[in-house]
Amino acid sequence: MAAPSPAEQVRSFIAKFDPGVATLIRSSRAVMRRRLPTANELVYDNYNFFVIGYSASERASDCVVSLAAGSNGVSLSFFHGATLRDPDTMLLGSGTQNRFVRLESAATLTIPAVERLIRAALEQAATPMPTTGRGRTIVKSISAKQRPRRARAG
Known about the structure:
- It is built from three helices and six strands, in the order H-H-E-E-E-E-E-H-E.
- The protein has 154 residues and is of the alpha+beta class.
- The chain has a single domain, classed as Aspartate Aminotransferase, domain 1 (Alpha-Beta Complex).
- It has a six-stranded mixed beta sheet with strand order 5-4-3-2-1-6.
- The relative contact order is 0.22.
């Protein structure tokens, strides 16, 4: 039996979420794919989160931004967000490196302040995104044990 394709695997990972969160993941992914068509999508179905990183290469260290989904929703995560100028105070988090923006809907990704953050993150990236071609979807890891992807009832 053939191994599932990356597209089939991603569909199965997203299917683990409540319908509303799954819809938000799919719509946000579509916006990011249009925004960064040459980026590779590095997919991690990890213990804490389901993550799709947008990278200039197949290396996680080249990820500029990622969609991170948990049972409570989806965020746009900036790997080096702590160093980004954020005059609109969009970024959340207090870690030494990562910052994120909670996505109420995929439209959040097109808000000018969020678009400026994405552009700034791309500008400071050590490895620039390719200017031509189409990025691939690459499943990098699947954790055997995972936190629940659906909100707990009650």
